[in-house]
Amino acid sequence: MKIVTYNVNGIKARLPRLIEYLNEGDADVVCLQELKAPDEAFPIADIEAAGYGAVWHGQKSWNGVAVLARGSQPVERQRGLMGDPDDEHSRYLECDIVAPDGGRIVVASLYLPNGNPRPGPKFDYKLRWLERLRVRAGELLAEEVPAVLAGDYNVIANDDDTYSVRAMAEDALMQPESRAGYRRLLGDGWTDALRTRQPAGGVWTFWDYQAGAWQRDAGFRIDHLLLSPSAADRLVDAGVDKAYRGREKASDHAPTWARLR
């Protein structure tokens, strides 16, 4: 089973690239972020025509997440994170997926706040959101089922996850507090799939549109798939479908994946 996280940076603008990816690849589950569209604008007909069922949680102009499953319909478990009744951002969607062998896997698509500028309320919100995610992640661990938390974490976890530590030193993505929140998840028992398979670093999932970042390969890794212990036991491989970032009018993120037995 290939599980993908893909920040599409606007599903209306990137729909041709998304449909290409679904038709050309072998993804069984695709977690989308940054739909930037309300629920009623989600292109479900196009996605179903490509052979995928979908659950989505949209928001006009901003945020938005979805879970797609090839040949089946994801079953929604939870929409949004608990712990802040005033948080109306569409950033978390959790579903049950029936695996090809008939087993069940829990997959969440998440879009963690960027946190810039910092210091300030946006950075504070990012850190609070990380802690709320940790609470939900702990509940999933207690269920002892295979689970994957897939998404754009907006966290550069290690120095070798960026083309330039100096360039990103003041960014919210690489602050000690952001990294500490991410590492607490790992300490609780979650496995960073891509890091496990490619421990030397130097693997990017995002290249900015500015300053020729793609052409210079000046990227960084912020799209992660965290695996619960029973999912990590099934990990076969993980990687980045980098070539899709180079296509015309592509997202600034590349699809990032983990393959499980």
Would you give an account of this structure?
By secondary structure, this protein is of the alpha+beta class. It has one domain: 4-Layer Sandwich (Deoxyribonuclease I, Chain A). It contains 8 helices and 14 strands. The strands form 3 sheets. A 6-stranded mixed sheet has the order 3-4-2-1-14-13. The protein has a 6-stranded mixed sheet with strand order 5-6-7-8-12-9. A two-stranded antiparallel ribbon has the order 10-11. Helix 3 (121-143) packs parallel to helix 5 (176-188). The active site is at residues 111, 152, 253. InterPro entries: AP_endonuc_1, AP_endonuclease_F1_BS, Endo/exonu/phosph_ase_sf, Endo/exonuclease/phosphatase, ExoIII-like.
CATH class: Alpha Beta
Radius of gyration in whole Å, from Cα?
Answer: 17 Å
Q: How many angstroms does the end-to-end distance come to?
A: 6 Å
Q: Total number of β-strand segments?
A: 14
Architecture per CATH nomenclature, i.e. the level-2 architecture: 4-Layer Sandwich
Number of folding domains? 1
CATH homologous superfamily grouping? Endonuclease/exonuclease/phosphatase
Percent helix range = 25-40%
Give the strand order of the largest sheet, numbering strands 1, 2, ... along the chain. Answer: 3-4-2-1-14-13
Domain Endonuclease/exonuclease/phosphatase: 4-253
Protein name: Exodeoxyribonuclease-3
Site (Important for catalytic activity): 223
GO molecular function, one term: double-stranded DNA 3'-5' DNA exonuclease activity
